[in-house]
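Work Package 3 (structural annotation) set out to generate three-dimensional models for the target panel prioritized at the project kickoff. During this period the team completed the workflow that converts sequence records into discrete structure tokens, so that structures can be stored uniformly alongside our sequence database. As a representative example, we reproduce one entry of 637 residues exactly as it appears in the project archive.
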Amino acid sequence: MWSVLLFAFAQSSTMAAPLHLGESAPPTRAIAALRVADREGESGSAQREVQALLAELRAPEDFTALAKSLAGKRSATRTAMYGVVPPGLLAAPLDQRLASLAVGEIGAPFEHQGAQWIVQRIEDSAGCRQIFIAGVDAAARERAERVVATARGGADFAQLAREHSDERASALRGGDFAIFERGPADAGVRAATFAARIGEIVGPLETPLGFHILQRVGVESLDPRLRDDSWARVRCILVAFRGAPNSGVEVERRHDEAQALADDLAVRIRRGEDMAQLAREHTDDRGLRAFGGEVGWVRRGVTRMPPLFDRVFVEPPGQLIGPLPSTAGFVLLRREDPGPRTRLDLRVERFTDLVLSLRASSERVDVTTRSEALTAALEALRALAPQDGAESWRIAEELLGRSASSSDFAALLEARCPDASGQAAGQAWCAPLRAFAAALARLEAEHLELVWLAHQRHAEAALTELRVEWNRLGASALEALLAALESDDPRVVVQVRYVADGPSPGAGLWPAAGVPQVWVDVDATSSPMLLERTLVQVARALLARRPEAFGLRASLHEACAAASIPTSSAAVLAAEHALLDAAVEHVVQRVFERSTSLGGVGELESSLRAAWSEYFRASVTRSQALERVVAELVARR
């Protein structure tokens, strides 16, 4: 494994310093420090001032508050430092002194660079549980004060949160709200959390939205996904051009040439080429070239890096960002770690819409008016259907899932197909796929001109209400779904592609490296139904990507095998679908507090779903639910 800190390269990298390379983010410490310089013409005044200040301190917290109040303020003699610092950013004497202290301890004053320094090590993070009471009127205040009194009287805070909190996402977790990391401008809920003792109830704190009742808890008692999103592992490619003031290199490439190269690299990466290898070949950040463009772990607001790096904390992990123009050149970025939270990445994409519209047209028998481009594309698509076409269709599915345009599909296909000297067997699937690629290119131009804008408007209109629901509770819903299915994967990002016109029943899966993907047809479905259908397809995408990661499914297969029921049989597949539907029904009721409208698909699956539903309602045990499901399958064998 690489060293956590390769400081030697910090000075040679154009984009970021220092470099923290490794499988996990580097350890951090938090500092409160005060630098005191002599007043002009008064030699020794700094030392006397420091001694007097220390003599006046009544508690370590007083020094913490002083450093925080002075941080960021200009003064001729006093300078303060406050907040979390990763390795490599402090001068060696400060870093050594900080490392030698226990949390809360204030070290003896020392001289550094002509000034006196006092260094205190402070807590770098704090765990918080919350009950939020919406509203700022007298009734809301009275309600909040009643809850505070009950909590201070010894009631279970988690249960109070589930019953009373108006912030549903944290209420579902028993009030578990956040792991805050120390910052120079902590205020409000953050500041109150750090000021509290472990277990202490704080509040009600009034904000413009309502009243917050807090309980500070140990960081180790909370899900690590609740930690502030402060670290991101980043890969970067810099394409410099002649005259770029901060590129750190001399190149002959003109501005337009640099932009064309950056655009080409972006297309190649989105087609699936290895970004690390492309960085080794093309990046103009010489300090990163040997590491395949890996900047390593950057900390928001601390690592010395251009502001454009903040995009990696906004865009989904794994998604290429850029090319972005900068004073150093054109920059491509990608977040390589999965991020701290489970979440859904919702999007409407024109190429996905085109492909699914084409597939929908191929399944309809009532399409009488077709353009020449659509007719040709349908004929090429049907030529891929199983005969010898099983391999053709498998490859087509794979390449379509990696493409953002028909040109992407054609380029990926040519990279896969043998040339004229290749094996004859390979040509059998290349020919129909090349015909399909050509037809797809014609259809794409027509689709973008005549269809896409109307489809986009329709899809976005259908998603308006749904986006509000997902932004508020999507992470909680996905976490609840993973918990219901007994997933061992703590961090999941699922890409959901919505289309306006797709084949029934409304969803299909495309494989993608490391990222579960799903598409959902919005058609004329209401927002509540769309939410449920999305969750069902997300569950299936997760299951297709990592079937071994779901304990409940594994237990079902073990029970079926013990009863001599082949796990590949249609009956077991029906039991899996029933399990997923029952889990979604449970999540919708628990997270979104409404009944579901999932329809049955037959007597067997409805019966199986009933057994799973009773398990999720805690009416039967896990083993009893499995016994009922297996007994139903045996009876119908």
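The first strand starts at residue 29 and ends at 36.
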